[in-house]
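I would love for you to help me understand the pair of lines that follows before we discuss the fold together.
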Amino acid sequence: MNNKEITRDDDADPSLDLHSNYDSSEIIGTWFNCDPDTRQIHHLSIIDSNGELYIQVFAALSNSHLDWGTSKIAPFISIPDSNLIGGFTCSFDFGFMETQICSNIKRGILVIQAYNIFKDNSGRPNYYSREFFNQ
């Protein structure tokens, strides 16, 4: 075993080519926040476009939803010898702020952590949120 090729016993065998065969069946579709009174992400949609995964996010506003547009998803498997997507990351750059999203899915619930970084020298503190979504 070469320690330069792995960092723990659970690392996948580098000879496996699972990347091109991800199973996205558990994350594709529209997801709604379990908290109807959220002040963060109201709902989101995940689509497969020619083998690439994209997310479209709709944030909560007082009387409507703000469409953040789409972002390409970087998928992650949760078990090294599986091709089932267990989570993903993506980001949205709004100019004045960047939002990094990290997610995982467990028992049919999509957990979204959003890390919000202000870039406009406004003095606002960076913050994160963690919310739960179902289909």
